[in-house]
Amino acid sequence: MRFAVERMTVADIPRVIEIERLAYSTPWPPSAYRKELQDNPLAHYIIVRDTHAQVPARAMGPAESAPKRPFPLSLLPSRTAPVGTPELASTIAFAGLWLMMDEAHITTIAVHPDYRGRGIGELMLATLIGIAYDIHARNVTLEVRVSNIVAQNLYRKYGFREAGTRRRYYSDNHEDALIMWTDDLESPAYRSEFLRLHTALVARLRAQDPD
Length: 211
Description:
Elements: E1 3-7, H1 13-23, H2 30-39, E2 43-50, E3 90-100, E4 103-111, H3 120-134, E5 139-145, H4 149-157, E6 161-166, E7 177-181, H5 188-206
Parallel strand pairs: 4-5
Antiparallel strand pairs: 1-2, 2-3, 3-4, 5-7, 6-7
């Protein structure tokens, strides 16, 4: 599988910040991600790597000396670069959620501009929903800009519905946010539709692997 999903680690933060600055006008500071990864047991963050992308060799620090843990519910096989050798993949996207009581709140999804339109955002959304199942969340919720129709359509595809509006939610331009929620993840109808979408997504991503 060309696109591999891994748990985010502290070593990933510089690249995560780089992607976020390309994707958003008000990125989080590196210290915020460090705190999320080190001090928040309810936070779950992932990255996506393009396993066919070559990146320059560099020295590995202590945070990179151990293999990364795959996310709990494996929708796709993960890949870890061999310890002590140059990385053979580059990070192209990241996402995260918090578990709040029995709700999984998606905090961020970002894709490098060069990889948009290739199913990477959908891969991360499906992975986060898979994590929500694994941590026994009943629903998934998020905020999305009222102007971001592309993202809204993806969320609706995965069963999110509008549940309200947060006025002037975004600090850069005071745009409103739609609050969106899924139905009960454990309902037979939702689980069946999620599995159907997952199967179609895997087929789409496999089709991007070169012969």
